[in-house]
Amino acid sequence: MKKNIWIYGCKCLIIWYWTIWLFNRMMGFSNRCLLIDRKRQIAYSCNYIDHILIPITIILVMIYLIYFIKNSGEKLRWKISIGKKEKCIVVFGKQKRNGTIGKKSVWITIIIFGLTGIMFTTECLIKYKAMNEGWPGDIIVSHAGGEIDGYIYTNSKEAILKNYELGNRTFEMDFQMTSDNSVVCVHDWNVEFSDGHRGGVVESEKDFLSMQIFGRYTALSFGDLLQIMDEYPDMWIVTDTKYTEREDIIEQFSSMVETAEKLGLESVLDRIIVQIYNCEMYYIVKNIYPFKSWNFTLYQIWSGDKTEFQRYAKFCFENNIKSITMWTNPARKEIFEIAHEYGLDVYVHTENNVNTARQYIIEGVDGIYTDSILKAEMEDK
Hints:
Elements: H1 2-27, H2 34-39, H3 43-71, E1 76-82, E2 85-92, H4 103-132, E3 140-143, H5 157-165, E4 170-174, E5 176-177, E6 183-184, H6 205-209, E7 212-213, E8 217-218, H7 222-231, E9 236-240, H8 246-262, E10 272-276, H9 279-288, E11 293-297, H10 306-318, E12 323-327, H11 333-341, E13 345-349, H12 354-363, E14 367-370, H13 375-379
Parallel strand pairs: 3-4, 3-14, 4-9, 9-10, 10-11, 11-12, 12-13, 13-14
Antiparallel strand pairs: 1-2, 5-6, 7-8
Helix pairs in contact: 1-3, 1-4, 8-9, 10-11
């Protein structure tokens, strides 16, 4: 009888796991480490647990309890006391001559249960690792390397190192392709950022690197930036790659990965936070390289509608994208709350007033893209 209970229990767990797995695939739900999500109080996961997982589990247990009693050779009895007399009523089930399970069925159940357990454990470990690796977030992201000597948008070596020395650790950098298909740190070829550059001309990598930004700052290639990151192992870079066409995305990120491989700095890519501009871009870049950190920025696609924003937040949650960024203009408290329901950190850009930035933090923002605010200023009370 004890063996029967264990085997039927294993069968129940197998059916439960695969029912949930198929339901999630059909409804588009992500397999998550739900206990971790519950501990973190991610509302979307808590609602899933309360309104989907638990009800399905209860229904399956009830169905399987009936099946077990009906087929295990055991009766379900109710005892009714009438005065001093006690009567036993059989609710359902009947005693079979042989209520045992055949050896073949036992071994098949054990094998399937073992394989299911391995798959479940592996999936949990992968999800747990993905949820706990990558960029931990930051209250300040220095925009285009940060301000230096009153200049912004320099994307220069001096800007990064100055703001790093002042305490900032996360830098958003602009990237463009050169005429010879290399990636360099520049916001826009249309802007005359150097005496040697004429607006609208796409420079070669060599020509660009020979220029001084605004006549005084060092221009950087993507390879130069990787070498700086290698020297400063707590530095993180958010990419602003501009391009949204599939071919351009593939060309740009393939060049970036190839550069890292040639320099022997592929490990530094683990501190690159890929900023995507639409859902398709995530899949395109992911097929090029398994970056560990992602950010969904909405300035190119979001209309300001709450329902639309919720779709983007759900996409981030399902794909383990941990942060979402928006303009300061449509940013409002109810939008921040939706993002937090999906466990997302919320960033706004670009804000250079410390008091305004602090107010955004009070309203629920997790971080600020800024040209000039230092991390120390936000931490001072």
